[in-house]
Design brief:
Helix content: over 70%
Distance between the termini: 24 Å
Shape: globular
Strand content: under 5%
């Protein structure tokens, strides 16, 4: 588990991304983190 504070506008952006992909907000966060990690390779 990971906990942290995120600005409201970022939460909204993640929620919109999640809705567009048809996944939960938690799954969206996991996918976005993975994409970020892969982009730095």
């Amino acid at each position: 588990m990971l906990a942290g504070r995120v600005p409201a506008e970022m939460i909204k952006a993640v929620a919109e991304w999640a809705a567009a992909k048809g996944v939960s907000r938690s799954e969206a966060i996991r996918r976005l983190i993975q994409k970020g990690l892969e982009a730095t390779k």
